[in-house]
Amino acid sequence: MTAAALVPGVLVASILVDTAPGDAMTHRERVRVIRVAAAKAGAPYSYGAEGPCRFDCSGLTMRVLHRIGRELPRTSRDQSTATHRVTQARRRWGDLVFLSSRGRVHHAGICAGRNRIWHAPGPGRRVQRERLWTSRVTCGRVR
Questions:
Q1: What residue numbers bound the domain in which 106 lies?
Q2: Is the pTM here over 0.70, yes or no?
Q3: Residue 92 C-beta-side C-alpha neighbours within 13 Å
Q4: How wide is the angle at C-alpha 74 spanned by C-alphas 70 and 80, nearest 5°?
């Protein structure tokens, strides 16, 4: 994207830097989030694990965001409250997706676009990209 400015009689073109409002992630950070999450594909689920070789759902999201310099609390519930809420229609890849039951967040994943998420599904399973199986989610943008 370019912009033009008039500087004493001279038209100067400049390239706008890919910045995000406030502390939201840039395009480059979102790309890194997806790449780091994809690099964890196949890692086994382990309750309470934060990596680098085993993960539970919030351990995965915490580790991935930490790799790009963003800090998150440890649990999916706390991660949900630490992020800026966005609607499903406005979610972007790299945003976090939270699943709830009876008003309590119980699972976290990373939006991978096209209604898919990267997540650590549960016992006996491995980190994977999977189609989101429910519409009962809330989305959070890392600040």
A1: 24-141
A2: yes
A3: 13
A4: 75
Mean pLDDT computed over 130-138? 94
Q: Which amino acid is at 50?
A: E
pLDDT of residue 23: 58
CATH classification of the domain holding 85: 3.90.1720.10
Q: Is 131 part of any domain? A: yes
**Euclidean distance between CA atoms 56 and 24, whole angstroms:** 25
Length, in residues, of the chain? 143
> What percent of the chain stands above pLDDT 70?
84
* Catalytic center residues: 57, 107, 119
Residues 6+ apart with CB under 8 A from 28: 18
pLDDT in tens, 76-100: 999 999 999 999 999 999 999 999 9
CB proximity list for 34: less than 8 A, separation 6 or greater:
93, 94, 110, 112, 118
